Structure formats: C-alpha cells, structure tokens
C-alpha cells in the first residue's frame, strides 16, 4: 500500500519538474529563430543537385533547437533580478519564481549544450562545426558573468545579430551545402543580422525599466528610450 501511494506522488513530482524545465527553456520564444536556421538549410539544399539528406536536416533541427534551449535557459539563470520585476517574464522564468534553483538551471543548460555539440561535431563539415561552436560560446557569454555580453552596450545588440540572425542562418546553409558559400547566402545573412539587431533593440526597450532596476546596462539603458526608439 505504501509503495502504491508513492508511485503516483513520484509521477506527479516528475511531471511538475519536467513542466518546470520546459518553461525554463522557453520554446515558444525561440521557435522563430529555429525557422531562420531551417531557412538557411532550405536555401543551401536548393543548391545541391538531387538533395536527399533527410538525416542532415534532422540533425540541423535537433542541434539548433538544443543551442536555442541552452541559450534561453542560460539567460533565465542570470536574468533573475530583472525578471522578478516583470510579471510576464516571471511566468517564463522558473528560477526567478523559485521553482528551480540557479544551479539546477546551469547544469541543465550545460547538458543541452553538450548534447548539441555532440550532434553537430559527430558528422558535419568543419565550417559548420566552427559556426556551431561559436554559437554555443555566444550562448554562454551573452548571459553569464564575468563576460556577460548582455551588459555591454552596443556589443549586446551586435552579438545578438551575429548569433541569432546571420549565425543561425549560415549554420543551416553550411550544413546543407557541405560547407560551401554563395553570394546570395551572404546577402540573406546580412539582412538577418540587421533583423536580429532590430529585434534585440525592441526587446530591450520593453525591458528598460526592469533592466535599470537590476543594474543591467544594455544599449537601450545607455542611450535612453528616445534615442533608442529613433535608432529602432
């Protein structure tokens, strides 16, 4: 009888913990970025005669998803002071709401990055691997001290454009094309670089008050609302 009571309780605890992890990686916030990687893959595949590399496409989706989950969870780990002052952000950050410890979040995020690296480094071309390693490095240094690119005005916006704009696109393109580049791919990457910077400025504008309270010095905090809106 005792064991029979423990099993439903254990299942309930496990279910709540998995739900907490799912909220922590914020899938709904990065699925659009995943589509940038998929767009790159589709354009790269269109340049390959008789493309049939379905396994490569699956590896691309899995590795890109793991990178994004890692980056967004890492951001949650170190944005507690800002997110605790925003109701919408608090609902997406189980660390800020006290449902997950920061240590637990860091371990989970590092595990996601490790699996992503394993998928990427196991079979892709050298250039694709280098881009993916760069994305993982950015995912950690953007949020985590002592580097914390998010707290460096101008660098925060530019690095966001390089990683979550052109970087994701080029990763997808290179995986599909086997490491070759085209002028068209370079132009699209430049366009997505600008798009990602615009998106980052918009996000920082909406987070301005919370960032000021938490002491996070983003580009928008440095420039002020009016000049940031003009640049946007």
Notable characteristics:
single chain, mainly alpha, about 230 residues
What does this 3D model show about the protein?
The structure is a single chain. This protein is 79% helix and 0% strand. By secondary structure, the protein is mainly α. Helix 3 packs antiparallel against helix 6 (102-123).
User: What number is the mean pLDDT?
Assistant: 91
- β-strand percent reads under 5%
Succession of helices and strands: HHHHHHHHHHHH
- Number of helical elements: 12
Distance between the termini: 63 Å
Structural class: mainly alpha
- Rg estimate, integer Å: 19 Å
Unreliable spans: none
* Major sheet characteristics: none
Q: Can you summarize this structure?
A:
By secondary structure, the chain is mainly α. Helix content is 79%, strand content 0%.
Write the layout of secondary structure elements.
Blueprint: H1 2-25, H2 27-46, H3 54-78, H4 80-83, H5 87-92, H6 102-123, H7 126-141, H8 155-177, H9 183-206, H10 208-214, H11 219-223, H12 225-231
